[in-house]
Amino acid sequence: MVVKREVVKRNTWQREAVREALELTDGFISAQALHATLHATGSPIGLATVYRALADLAGEGDADSLQSPEGESIYRACSTTGHHHHLICRNCGLTVEIAADAVETWAQSMAAEHGFTQAAHVVDVFGLCPNCSAAASARP
Ligand SMILES: [Zn+2]
Ligand SMILES: [Zn+2]
Ligand SMILES: [Zn+2]
C-alpha cells in the first residue's frame, strides 16, 4: 500500500486551473507552454506557480512527467488515477499506463525484508514504441 504524503493545500484555485489546462492538452506539454495557454485564456497565474503546481501534480500521481530530449520537464494529465507505472517512448513521447503487480509485490517484500515502512516507488520504463521501433529498424 502506498501512503500519500500530506500536502499542505496552498494555491488551490491555481492548482485546479493548471490541472484543468493540462487535461485539455493533448499529449505532453512544458510548464512554459502551459503557462502561455493559461495566459491566453486570461488567467493571471504566474510561471513559477505553474511550475510548482505541475511538480505537485506529478508528485501525487495526477500527472505524468518526463524529460524532453532537450532536458526540459514536460507533463501530461494522467488518465489513470492512483498508483501505476508507465511505458514511455523516448522518441515520440507515447505513454502507456500499466499496472505492475510483480513490481508491487517485489517492492513490498524488499521493504519488509529490510525493515522499511511506508515504502513508495517510481518505476517508469523508457524505450521505443512499436512505431518508432519499426522506423528505427527501417533506417539503413
Ligand atoms: Zn500515468
Ligand atoms: Zn514512439
Ligand atoms: Zn508500483
Automatic annotation (TrEMBL):
GO terms of biological process kind: negative regulation of DNA-templated transcription; regulation of secondary metabolite biosynthetic process
Cofactor dependence: Zn(2+); Mn(2+); Fe(2+)
Binding annotation for Fe cation: H83, E104, H121
DNA-binding among keywords: yes
GO MF term set: DNA-binding transcription factor activity; transcription cis-regulatory region binding; zinc ion binding
Gene3D superfamilies in alphabetical order: 3.30.1490.190, Winged helix-like DNA-binding domain superfamily/Winged helix DNA-binding domain
Entry GO terms, CC: cytosol
Swiss-Prot/TrEMBL keywords: Cytoplasm, DNA-binding, Iron, Metal-binding, Repressor, Transcription, Transcription regulation, Zinc
Major location category of this protein: cytoplasm
PANTHER family xrefs: FERRIC UPTAKE REGULATION PROTEIN, ZINC UPTAKE REGULATION PROTEIN
Assembly description: Homodimer.
Identification of the protein by name: Fur family zinc uptake regulator
